[in-house]
Amino acid sequence: MGRLLGATEVVPRSTDLSTIGPVDAVPFGPASTACLRDGGTAVFTRPPGAAPDREQRFETVLVQTDPASLRWLTTDLVDGRLRTRVAEVLPLAEAVRAHALNEAGGLRGKVVLAP
User: Fold this and answer.
1) How many CB atoms lie within 10 A of CB 12?
2) Spatial CB neighbours of 34, under 8 Å, sequence gap ≥ 6
């Protein structure tokens, strides 16, 4: 997936990120900043909870509501062009548990809420 998004090098999730680098940009959790070069940028989908400890930039990209894009993604999902790893499917009534699982981290995939 990373190469499809323009990455020139993709490392396995199990890589100790403090052993590689320095790199220009990292698109995953706060632990990834160990390999980020001074002046590099870390991109997160939720606030990392800490400020950079070196001359780095942290960017948080927030989700925007876009019904047209959601229809397009839904069509791609139904037609098999968009795939994702699902860790667990829970009934909507267990939304609190779903959030707790996401907050705990360590999942190998997404938690899906089924109405």
Assistant:
1) 5
2) 17, 18, 21
Return per-residue pLDDT of the chain as tens, 115 residues: 556 556 677 777 777 777 877 776 665 666 667 777 888 887 777 777 777 777 888 887 777 778 898 899 889 988 988 878 899 999 999 999 998 998 888 888 899 999 8
pTM above 0.70, yes or no: no
Contact yes or no for 23/39 (Cβ under 8 A): no
The Cα–Cα gap between 89 and 100 comes to 14
H helix or E strand, kind and range, residue 2: none
